[in-house]
């Protein structure tokens, strides 16, 4: 069975600084997707960034980028120029590319932005 | 384009009662998945419906059930509520095409269920 592990329950970063959230996963599949979702206090789960396992190039979305290490099964999220609006719970997630829509989530990392 | 809509936003029930939650997916989406979110267990997959059929099911007791209608709207039912059922219930919709690389899931804002 696939598992997703986020080892940092909470993190803090100064506004305008850079922070990296860690995630490791375990799977025997070769084709899959990895995601970072953001859940602010409003509870709406928002997709931040997506990585397809077959792509070696790391995904980027504006200030958000990932470091995808397939052999090490590591998928970290880097947030550059942190803003107050980035404060939220961040979830790393996995989905098989060959089956249905079931997403497996990590336990989450609560990110605090210090002004 | 309207997003995923979940109703109601908040619900308070007592033990032993039953509850029905509703999820309206994004127009054109045929898959609806349900997740339970609690502080202790995190986000756990309940089930997924595609074209009115349950396509996958998580490890939850039979008190948790769901269905999907022909317009892709989905309902989730929990019978004989227990205190431990208190949680945020999230639904997500997608095109639902198996293996499709554009199959991105979009989440609703959830229904907060409190069981007293």
Can you put this structure into words, describing what you see?
- The complex is a heterodimer of chains A (115) and B (116).
- By secondary structure, chain A is an all-beta fold.
- Helix content of chain A is 0%, strand content 53%.
- Chain A has strands at 3-5, 10-14, 19-21, 24-26, 32-39, 46-52, 60-61, 64-69, 74-79, 88-96, 103-105, 109-114.
- In chain A, strands 2, 5, 6, 10, 11 and 12 form a 6-stranded mixed sheet that branches. Chain A has a 4-stranded antiparallel sheet with strand order 3-9-8-7, with no helix packed on it.
- In chain A, strand 7 (60-61) and strand 8 (64-69) form a beta hairpin.
- The relative contact order of chain A is 0.34.
- The model of chain A has no long low-confidence stretch (mean pLDDT 94).
- Chain B is mainly beta and 116 residues long.
- Chain B has no helices and 11 strands.
- Chain B has strands spanning 5-7, 10-13, 19-24, 31-38, 42-50, 53-57, 64-68, 74-78, 87-94, 106-107, 111-115.
- Chain B is globular, with a radius of gyration of 14 Å.
- The mean pLDDT of chain B is 93.
- Chain A binds chain B through residues 37, 42-47, 50, 52, 91, 95, 97-108, and chain B through 31, 33, 35, 42-43, 45, 48, 50, 55-56, 58, 88, 90, 92, 94, 96, 98-99, 101, 103-110, 112.
Tertiary shape of chain A: globular
Overall 3D shape of chain B: globular
Strand element count of chain A: 12
Helix count from the secondary structure assignment of chain A: 0
Give the overall pLDDT of chain B as a whole number.
93
Return residue spans of chain A where pLDDT drops below 50 for at least 5 consecutive residues.
none
* Helical residues, percent of chain A: under 10%
What average pLDDT do the residues of chain A reach? 94
The share of residues in helices of chain B is under 10%
Rounded to an integer in angstroms, the radius of gyration calculated over CA atoms of chain A is 14 Å
Range of strand content of chain A: over 45%
Distance between the termini of chain B: 37 Å
- Number of DSSP E strands of chain B: 11
Content of β-strand of chain B: over 45%
* Helix segment tally of chain B: 0
Low-confidence parts of chain B: none
Distance between the termini of chain A: 41 Å
The secondary structure category of chain B is: mainly beta
Radius of gyration of chain B: 14 Å
Class from secondary-structure proportions of chain A: mainly beta
Chains forming the largest contact: A-B, 23 and 28 residues
């Amino acid at each position: 069975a696939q598992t997703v592990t986020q080892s940092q329950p909470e993190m803090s970063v100064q506004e305008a600084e850079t922070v990296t959230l860690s995630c490791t996963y375990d799977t025997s599949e070769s084709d899959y997707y990895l995601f970072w979702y953001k859940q602010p206090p409003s509870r709406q789960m928002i997709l931040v960034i997506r990585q397809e396992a077959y792509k070696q190039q790391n995904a980027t979305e504006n200030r958000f980028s990932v470091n995808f290490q397939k052999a090490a099964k590591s998928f970290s999220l880097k947030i550059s120029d942190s803003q107050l609006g980035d404060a939220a719970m961040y979830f790393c997630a996995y989905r098989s590319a060959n089956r249905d829509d079931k997403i497996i989530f990590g336990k989450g990392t609560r990110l605090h932005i210090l002004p | 384009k309207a997003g995923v809509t979940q109703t109601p936003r908040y619900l308070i029930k007592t033990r032993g009662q039953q509850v029905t939650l509703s999820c309206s997916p994004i127009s054109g989406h045929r898959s609806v998945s349900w997740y339970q979110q609690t502080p202790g267990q995190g986000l756990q997959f309940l089930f997924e419906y595609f074209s009115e059929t349950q396509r996958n099911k998580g490890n939850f007791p039979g008190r948790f059930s769901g269905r999907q209608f022909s317009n892709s709207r989905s309902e989730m039912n929990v019978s004989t509520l227990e205190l431990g059922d208190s949680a945020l219930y999230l639904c997500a919709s997608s095109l639902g095409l198996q293996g499709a690389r554009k199959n991105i899931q979009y989440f609703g804002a959830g229904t907060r269920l409190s069981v007293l």
